[in-house]
Specification:
Elements: E1 3-4, H1 8-17, E2 21-27, H2 32-47, E3 53-57, E4 75-80, E5 83-89, H3 94-98, E6 107-109, E7 115-117, E8 121-125, H4 130-141, E9 147-150, H5 155-165, E10 172-175, E11 178-181, H6 185-192
Parallel strand pairs: 1-3, 2-3, 8-9
Antiparallel strand pairs: 2-4, 4-5, 6-7, 8-10, 10-11
Amino acid sequence: MIEYVKSSGHFEELKTKNKDFLMVLFYTDASDKSKTALKVMEEFSEENKDVYVCAVNAAKVKDIHTIYGISTVPTVLAIKNGKPSKIVYGPQSKEYYQRLLYDVPAAVSGSDGESRKSHNVVVYTSSSCPWCSTVKSYLMKNRIYFREVDISRDQGAAQELVRRSGQMGVPQTDIDGNIVVGFDQAKLDSFLGIKNN
C-alpha cells in the first residue's frame, strides 16, 4: 500500500523509519502520465509488500522534489541507506520498477547468460519519439541498466547533447561517454558487449 506524504516533516519521518530502502513517486493530479504511474506503483506496492512506497503530490507538497532536483512528473526516486540511489522519469512498467530493488552489480549477466561489464548508460528521449521505446526495450531485453533523460523537459540536457554529438534528434544513447545516434543495434552491441546469435 502506498503512503501519501502530507508534508516535508512527514517525509522525514518515513525516511527515518525506512532507512534501508524507500521508493518515492513524485506526481500531480493534473498529469495523465502521473495517474498512470500512480496506478502502476499501487500494483507494484501490492505485489511487493516488503518494500515501502510513498507518493508525493508535488503540486501540494512543494518542498520535497526540489531537494532532489526533480522538476518533472512522474518521477520515481529510490532511496537506499538514506541517500538517493536511482531516479526514473516517466511512467514505467511494474517490472521496470522492480529493477530498482536491486543494486547494479559490477558485472551483469546478459540474455546470452554470459557475464558482462556494467556500463554507465544514459538514453536521451522525448515524449513523441517511437524509436526511443525501441532502444529502451532493447536495453531492457538485454538486462542493461540505464538512466532516461527526456530532453523535451530538460533544455539543459538537450543543449549539452547537441554540443556533444552535433545532433538534435533522439534517441541518442550515451554509453560510457560514447554517443550512439538512433537505434543502431550494431553500435549498441559493440559498446555494450552484447553478442547476438
